[in-house]
Specification:
52% of the residues lie in helices and 15% in strands. It is globular. The protein has one domain (10-194, 206-256): 2-enoyl-CoA Hydratase, Chain A, domain 1 (Alpha-Beta Complex), CATH 3.90.226. By secondary structure, the protein is an alpha/beta fold. It has a six-stranded mixed beta sheet, sandwiched between helices. It has a two-stranded parallel sheet with strand order 4-6. The protein has helices at residues 35-50, 72-80, 82-101, 116-124, 140-143, 151-159, 161-170, 176-181, 194-206, 210-220, 222-226, 228-242, 245-256; strands at residues 10-16, 19-24, 56-61, 67-68, 106-110, 114-115, 127-131, 135-136, 174-175, 187-189. A hairpin with a 2-residue loop joins strand 1 and strand 2. It starts with 9 loop residues before the first strand and ends in a 12-residue tail after the last helix.
């Protein structure tokens, strides 16, 4: 029995020796994550870290999306249920730290929309590869909550504070090519070359010196660990927002496919 048999969210494959490929596998829902999917994406990295049979991981999506964020049922539970909000807040923190602390190098092949926890995993991957037709956006403030999860710990380091502030405050979209230009992703390739490119990189890593690669990742990720207090604050503020009027209005507007009407009274 494989350690990955318990996971419902992913198609698990071994396309090459010592290479694990995880594919978000609910294409009919654009690979959106429900409560189970969010939890599985958070904790699968611990199993991967302990797996002595693999040296690197590819993460991608089945169909035309990478992962279209959390589904509405989970978001509604976060808004309405304090216990669910506290649990998912912990998962959101654990997801980021589990990816950072996973010793195996992670490659993301971002093949379509990437939102929420999917975007977290896609951009926190050690090597992120995006197709040219893909656009990237972090839509937290449009949703009425602070830019939490990976944004504060990662974006300023990858693309600089000026670009991070612009895109995180405005929620403007970046093309795949622009994301590569500003350093938000490792590379942008033609859509038809995406999976082959990810596999080429995986084979290169799997053929390398495993300890040297893992230790290099560990040392480099100390830059992210130093930003841990800022990340912890941002994620707490994000989930505080889900309990606010702005969070409720942002989610309602998204569901009703309209522009949000935020109260412009005195801010807190």
């Amino acid at each position: 029995m494989s350690r990955y048999d318990k996971y419902e969210t992913f198609l698990v494959e071994y396309p090459q020796p010592r290479v694990l490929k995880l594919t978000f596998n609910k294409p009919e829902r654009l690979n959106a994550l429900d409560v189970v999917g969010h939890r599985e994406l958070t904790y699968i990295w611990r199993d991967i870290d302990d797996d002595e049979d693999i040296d690197c991981v590819i993460l991608t999506g089945n169909g035309r999306a990478f992962s279209a964020g959390g589904d509405f049922s989970m978001i509604e539970q976060i808004i309405s249920d304090e216990k669910v909000r506290a649990r998912v807040w912990k998962e959101a923190r654990d997801l980021v730290y589990n990816i950072i602390n996973c010793g195996k190098p992670i490659i993301s092949a971002i093949n379509g929309p990437a939102v929420g926890a999917g975007l977290v995993a896609g951009l926190l991957a050690d090597i992120s590869i995006v197709g040219k037709s893909v656009s990237i956006t972090d839509g937290h403030t449009r949703l009425g909550v602070a830019a939490g999860d990976h944004a504060v710990i990662l974006w300023p380091l990858l693309c600089g504070m000026a670009k991070a502030k612009y895109y995180l405050l405005t929620c403007d979209r970046l093309s795949g090519e622009e994301a590569e230009r500003i350093g938000l992703v490792s590379m942008c390739v033609a859509d038809e070359d995406l999976q082959d490119t990810a596999m080429e990189v995986a084979q290169k890593l799997a053929a390398g010196a495993p300890n040297a690669i893992r230790w290099t990742k560990f040392a480099l990720n100390n830059w992210l660990r130093m930003a841990g207090p800022s990340f912890d604050a941002s994620t707490a503020l994000e989930f505080l927002g889900f309990a606010s009027a702005e969070g409720r209005e942002g989610v309602a507007a998204l569901q009703e496919k309209r522009l949000p009407n935020f109260d412009k009274g005195s801010p807190v």
